[in-house]
Amino acid sequence: MAKILSGKDLAQTMREEMKTELAELKEKHNLVPTLAVVLVGDDPASLSYVKGKEKACAEVGIEVRKFKFEADYAEGSLLKLIAELNTDPDVNGILVQLPLPDQINEEKVLYAIDPEKDVDGFHPINVGRLMIGAPGYVPGTPHGIQKMLSRNNIEISGKHVVIVGRSNIVGKPLALLLIQKNKEANATVTICHTGTKNIGEITKLADILVVAAGRPHTVNAGMVKPGAVVIDVGVNRVEDATKKSGFRLIGDVEFDEVSEKASAISPVPGGVGPMTITMLLHNVIRAAKKQSGIKD
Ligand code: GUN
Questions:
Q1: Given the CA of residue 99, which atom of ligand 1 is nearest to it?
Q2: How far apart are the C-alpha atoms of 5 and 112, rounded to whole Å?
Q3: CA 196 – CA 198 distance, rounded (Å)
Q4: Over the chain, what is the mean pLDDT?
Q5: Which terminus, N or C, of the chain has the lesser number of Cβ atoms within 10 Å?
Q6: pTM over 0.70
Q7: Does residue 296 have a pLDDT over 90?
Q8: Bridging pattern class, strands 3-4 and 93-96
């Protein structure tokens, strides 16, 4: 049976560390990092993610300014709000929850955020910084996966990491992060996607297999090398009449059979999800310190 990589426990540990750092920042510098959260519409998953982020911020001592709008909110109004938040010295980070309704051009909105307040790491400037290995803001999910590996003493350097999924928020930035030349990276990375032929032959080569396809049952035991480390990024809602909410969450990996074969595996829920939020908190703290001239 594989070791269970609990993102929930690690996130708790890291948030305790942040709490201590934030108490010190407040005492020494009278600094309370502030995150602006913008939510348009009422997509149930987005509402739930935003709630989780607000709760986590409150827990460590980050102030949240929430801006919630109806689904028909105009693109121009959103761009105006972002321009105001960009110049507001009391706002350190700006997060616009995705997806946005159809009338709003997501790219335009993400490009409008000041890269120094882009705590999601989605602005092309930060994507470019990640590409060349320069300091910047790294998206929470890939960063959280890297920390989940390193803080569980799983060597990344020299390993073959296979990533299933090429999204701009997980697959691509994770590949960029793990090929960098440093001790928490230095991996050989392969990305599989919907155009990949014989995907199971490639996933079987992985020392570390990261599955971010957004589709349940994407990876079964036959696609995994014995002893591999498996990180499941999937968050899929499936109907479950026994639950009060009417659904439960499952990942992209067949957990029961793969956990018999892997040396370590992250569960869903309680795996990557809490790590994603933790790294968002990390980015907000860094942004606040940088904007106040306080060294990391
Ligand atoms: N929607 C799904 N994941 C994310 C995320 O990490 N950040 C934002 N802003 N929206 C998302």
A1: 1
A2: 37
A3: 7
A4: 98
A5: C
A6: yes
A7: no
A8: unpaired
For the chain, list the domains and their CATH numbers.
29-115 (3.40.50.10860), 140-275 (3.40.50.720)
**pLDDT tens-digit readout, 69-106:** 999 999 999 999 999 999 999 999 999 999 999 999 99
- Catalytic residue set: 53, 97, 120
Q: How far is the CA of 226 from the centre of ligand 1 (A)?
A: 33
- Ligand 1 site, CB within 6 A: 95-98, 120, 140, 169
Q: How confident is the model at residue 27 (pLDDT cuts 50, 70, 90)?
A: very high
